[in-house]
Write a structure and sequence with these properties.
heterodimer; A: 332 residues; Rossmann fold; 2 domains; 6-stranded mixed β-sheet; 4-stranded antiparallel β-sheet; 9 helices; 17 strands; B: 271 residues; mainly alpha; MetI-like fold; 12 helices
Amino acid sequence: MTTAVLFDNVSRHFGVVRAVDRVNLDIAEGEFFAMLGPSGSGKTTCLRLMAGFEQPTGGHIEIFGETAEGVPPYRRSVNTVFQDYALFPHLSTLDNVAYGLMVKGAGREERRKAAEDALAMVKLPGYGTRRPGQLSGGQRQRVALARALVNKPKVLLLDEPLGALDLKLREQMQEELKSLQKSLGITFVFVTHDQGEALSMADRIAVFNEGRIQQLGRPEEVYNQPKTRFVADFVGSSNVLSTKLCQRLGVKAAFASLRPEAIALAAPSNGALSLAGTIAGQSFLGATNRVVVDVDGARIAVASPAAHAVPAIGSPVTISFAARDLHPMEDA
Amino acid sequence: MRSEKSNRAPLSLKIAAAAGLAFMHLPILLIFLYAFTTEEKSYQFPPPGLTTQWFGVAWDRPDVWAALALSVKVASIATATALVLGTLCAAAISQTRFFGRETISLLVILPIALPGIITGIALRSAFSMADIPFSFWTIVLGHATFCIVVVYNNAVARFRRISGSLIEASMDLGADGFQTFRYVILPNIGTALLAGGMLAFALSFDEVIVTTFTAGQQSTLPIWMLEELIRPRQRPVTNVVAMIVVVVTFLPILGAYYLTRDGDQIAGASK
């Protein structure tokens, strides 16, 4: 398996701010890789390091085996879809898409043909004569995608490309991006702060916080076995059980994570662990009820199927879960 | 009803506005009128007669042509210099962050805020100290100081509206610095530069104070007119030249106004 992007102990410090701090990454060719984290966590700086807009202050970057430090963006075989799309307002859609070919000196006819093909690929055939200002947000996003893909990059970088779209459009684009990536076989590196987006689209996820990777793994691993309290919290609001609760349950760890959907509002069947508490709150989420149970002052969220009745607030309740769903964590 | 009424100005305000405008513009009409008078020694009102002979006389005077040619040359070269330096300065100030950025921005704008006479005296003593003889080029240098400001102000406003990611997108798509300037930056700031350049040209074309201090024996058109007013010979020729100056400076300013207005629509990308 060829390595598309390699980060070896890469740091990018801005004065005293460690935007990226000793990050190690190994993205495989053809992989759909997501960098997930809150704003300011260093994920976008990592993307800019790959694109060449930033240079590392320490460490080593390779793109398909070639050293990337000191190589300007226009000599890298990567292309970027920008968060604000960055379409050229003075050019038509077709000229926007053909821009990369134009600066490389391709002939007029070749450019036009390639740009039209790219527009057809993102399902915008015949939109070539319009100006970016005449397109909707979703259409601009597709143009930005076509403009990057027409250059046949080895790695496509996407900086929160779906952030500005409404929910319906975002879900549709998620599917399209995924199938586009499969059919083209290009390595996609995707930056997002939306954990659902990362989980549903990526082959692997790197969770960033404060310039460092907290956890790197397949979506199921990151979701089910968060390594740190931050990951447990950020990727789908896991319950974090304190040292005291862990001891009571007989788990040898400082902290443990427990998914709300792994808990039942019922007495334990054989082998299951249980805790007693009182119902502290409840909200209806459609398919499930989110029930908050107070266990000696610790609040534990439970995702209970909507069909099941929820006891009234204040009434005592026993929650139960399988021992295998309780995941010990490294640190706070 | 009430809002309709409050939209209509009272008569007294209308008269005041009209009087203000008349105060500003009637003297200019008088200049035009005296270009056609038959009385050549004094500005007698009403003119005793009307003639177009002064246009012919002005056309045949070589000193008019020399002054006009000098003014056009000075304004062109000062504007060209300002376009290059002002654009570079605007690019640096708006696209990058560095220590002393605000200070430099202020220092660039300062020459237009300073009274021309200060700029003039400063330049004159600087030229003398450096033993630079007064010439065509010292006039150009003097004019460039305020032409740069005009270009800079126009360019910096437009640069601020170009999002930084446009330049990054261009680089990302394989364009080097020169290609990015040629294909992305220039089309986006072009109208602002044209407008700034036209204003700079118009400013330079009728500049008197700085020119007085930085010129040697040469007379630019405004200096020539000043000298001509003292002499009681063929006075209406000055008025004829004044008319030409009004037209030559007014057209570029009008052009600049329309160009920047269109520029807003282009940069707004709404249509």
